Structure formats: structure tokens, C-alpha cells
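User: I'll paste a sequence; please echo it back and then give the predicted structure.

Assistant: Echoing your sequence first, then the prediction.
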Amino acid sequence: MAYRAGELRIDDPEAGELRVAGDGYAAAGEVVTLLVSPDVHLLLGMSEEEVTGAARIEQRYREALRHLYAGGEWRPPQVDPAARSARQEVEREVGRLLGGELAARLRRLSWRVRGGDALLDEDVADVLHLTAEQRRLLATVAADNEREYTRVLAEAGAVRGRGAAGRSSDSSGLRGRARDADHAGSARLLELLTPEQRERFTRMQGGAG
């Protein structure tokens, strides 16, 4: 699942152990964050030119979001329809940069890491033939998940604000709670699929990662 903030260490069944980082612009498992992970560069055998191109794609994505939210309230981009065009542009640019085969490997890795969050991707929803009602419920549950995750992070901030005493153990416990909240949120999204859709999504996540 895509642990949204900070570094995520992925033990992927296909790709092995990888390190990626997420922040308010994109969760750790999204294509745009995987794209700039040195571990993913090695996994995909990316050239120096491709690594440079990947950094430029990420920068353009961040600039697009800053422009989008400059005059209003920031929303988590993964659940904001207004950010969809910026996210889709990343997908197109990645395809042009890496070519179809490597871009497909990167997308499968993202789907495995993100779990239920990947169901919010328009192309994934289309392939799974999600109904209008399923899409509506996914959006509702995803928004609820974001609120829960924000609540957990707020608690972490409160712990840090109380000072250094006991900070290490408290911080470790709250990181675990954040991961647990993320996994639980993914499970709630996946529960909205039919058994046939769940099986197909599992197949989509596979392949030579």
C-alpha cells in the first residue's frame, strides 16, 4: 500500500526491496514518486538521460499542482478530480520517456504498492468495468480514508510537540498506526470489487515487475 508521507520501504514480490518517498504531492507508490527512486532506476535499468528526464517530469507535475491549488484549498491530489489531468500527463510523459514495456512495468509496480488506491485511476476503473455506483463509492471511501490518515498524522504531530521524552517509541508506534490506517483503507476500497473484478485486478498487478 502507498504509505503517503515519508520513506516507504517496499518488499515487492516481483521487484524485491525498494525505497521510495512520498509527500503531499504524491503518495510513495504513485508512478511519479516511483519514477525518481534510485532503486527503481536500477530495477528498470534506466539510463542517465532517462533519470534526468524523470526528474523533469516530476518537477513539471509539482509545478502543475502548485498552479492548480494556488488560489484555493489544497486537496490530496489522488482523490481530487481537478488533479486528474496532471496525473494523466505524467503517465503520457513516462510512456514517451521509457517506452511501452518499461512504462508498463512501472505501472504494475505502482498498482501492487498502492493496492486499493489504484482503483481511483481512471484507466484501471475502465479495464475493470467499474459501475458508476462503484466509482461513486470508491470516491467516498477514499475521501474517508484521507480524513483518517490526516487524523493519524495530526496525532503524530501532537506527540512531537510534547518534546523529546519518549519521542522515539511514540514516533515508532505512530508510524505503525499510519501504516495500519493505510492498509485498512486499501482493504476498504478493494472490498467494493466483485470477486471477478478482484481477480482481474490481481492479474493486472502481476507480470515481470
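The chain has nine helices and two strands. The two ends are 16 Å apart (CA to CA).
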